[in-house]
Amino acid sequence: MKKRPNSPPLSEWKVLVFASKDEPLALLLNSIPILKSRITIIYDVKKALEALNHGNYTHVMSDVTKQNPMARRIMTWVHVNHPDIETYYLGVNGHPSGEIDIWKLSGGKIFTHSMIGIDPLTEPLSVLYTEETPIKWLSHAKCECLQIRERLDHRRNNVVMIIGASGTAKAVLAQIAHFSSQRCEGLFVFANCSPSETGGLNDNIWTAECENRLRRSIRHMFDQSDRGSVYFHGIDKLDIVAQHIMFEEIKKVVDAPVSEKNPRLIICATSKYLEEDVGKGNFSTELFSLISDHIINIPSLSQFKDELPMLAENLLRAYCLTERIPDRKLTKDALDTIRSHVWDENLRGLFQVLKQSYMMADSTYIKPIHLNLSPHLDKNDTLIDQSHSIKAALLKHKGVVTRAAKELDVSRSHLYNLMEGLEIPKGFGLPPIKKKQREERERKNIAKQKNQK
């Protein structure tokens, strides 16, 4: 609950009630000691936010607890945009608050239930997703999601494929879409398709019993997510036999009437474009054809380097807001460090660094020293990103190539080859005195070679 300094008398109250269901509403209305004519009841999140912008309300109340993700989104938005409005959670309807059902692929042969959990990035990103922010990365992701939502046939069960590099919050965006839709009454099931154990991936050892066990586990997840969503993380990690089984089970759901017990939306996520794997026979043509009608592309942060400081500031603010902790600010030098860093883990990596830096900072301001950043190379990095990482490693280790190579997990000779290809001069990162000494030695060596000739 958040209170204003001067609360108006009851006669001046104007209340917006965000309601999730009709059943507990009568009890809630009877508990509000004002005329019913001064109460507006809204069931839709978007309509509630529009009304709050134009309705001059004094109070916002919810018929659910703060565990409801949609109610939390509204209350958080009110805290940010209308701090003079009082907010109350008055309900007992504790819909799971962003909780997801997590399954893992054991031995590559069967999905088993792992845990029920909450992704720590979901709530902060939900805040930014709800707000009207100029962050281009988020605007792009929202636009992709909304375009697909408009194309879905709501008279049937649908399949969507999300493509995005590691750490681009594919699962979080899928959860936000789930909890903002009518599917929120059903479960969000997260299934990790990367085998949790080594072995068991050879096609030759698949038996009829193994296939049946995998079918039953997939079917069980679909039953659990009745009217909800199922998210398959890393669908390309399945072997070709498992892909064929997955195709058959998803096809049954797509073809089934919506009245039957099935998820309303199946989401298949991958970190790469699958056309090449399909052409090489490494990914099922049937499964690709089934899941690729509706594709959402989530961009990497490397495509939006100039706005990284603004994204970091807003993500830190949302984190502080949702955790109910005091605000902290990033200094200009910290923002410059964030801009120049190569975020191979994308948004999730940035969020993790911001959380750690908040705990390490001993004042209101977060400085570069509080940012736990380690430069490293990734095979998917652009040439510009590779150059940034190498320069960062060399600067960190004061130009000592051996140490920089160890940090980047490459050999010393390979790092020299990369530096030559990226036109990074030898001696980059050395302190001025050592750099001058190095240049002097090189001049003497050149002169000596000339004299020998």
Question: What's the short story on this structure?
Answer:
The chain has 453 residues and is an alpha/beta fold. It contains 17 helices and 13 strands.
Spell out the blueprint of helices and strands:
Blueprint: E1 15-18, H1 25-30, E2 39-42, H2 45-54, E3 59-64, H3 69-81, E4 86-93, E5 100-106, E6 110-117, H4 122-130, H5 136-151, E7 158-164, H6 170-179, E8 188-195, H7 208-224, E9 229-233, H8 240-255, E10 265-270, H9 275-280, H10 285-291, E11 295-298, H11 308-323, E12 329-330, H12 332-340, H13 346-360, E13 365-366, H14 383-396, H15 401-408, H16 412-421, H17 432-452
CATH top level of the domain at 100-298 is Alpha Beta
The helix count comes to: 17
- For the secondary structure, the number of strands is 13
Overall outline = flat
Key terms for this structure?
Rossmann fold; 16% strand; 45% helix; 17 helices; 7-stranded mixed sheet; 4-stranded parallel sheet; disordered N terminus; 453 residues; alpha/beta
